[in-house]
Design brief:
103 residues, Cysteine Protease (Bromelain) Inhibitor, subunit H, Prot_inh_BBI, protease inhibitor, Bowman-Birk serine protease inhibitors family domain-containing protein, disulfide bond
Amino acid sequence: MKSSRLLVILVLQAVPVMGIIAAVAKENAAVGESKGNMETNGGKLGCCTNCNFSFSGLYTCDDIVSKCDPVCKACKVVKKYPVKQFQCTDTFLSICGPPCKKN
């Protein structure tokens, strides 16, 4: 009877630990994938006002625009209403581009 209780207690303690281990492994795999499979854009955007540097040594442009620059390989819709707007989600090895001029 005591051994079955002990077994139940051990299993109940192992479940959260396994969940934590699985979550950490998944996060590490995602980080590894993003570094290993991430394509970097060798070009430069025509302009980028919000060019951000990450600790990985890559830059991203956080500008929201009405149309992505032709250099952009991965342009995503970030707003649909009232006007569709986009953001280039590429990563760049060097600064994204010169600051955009305000119209």
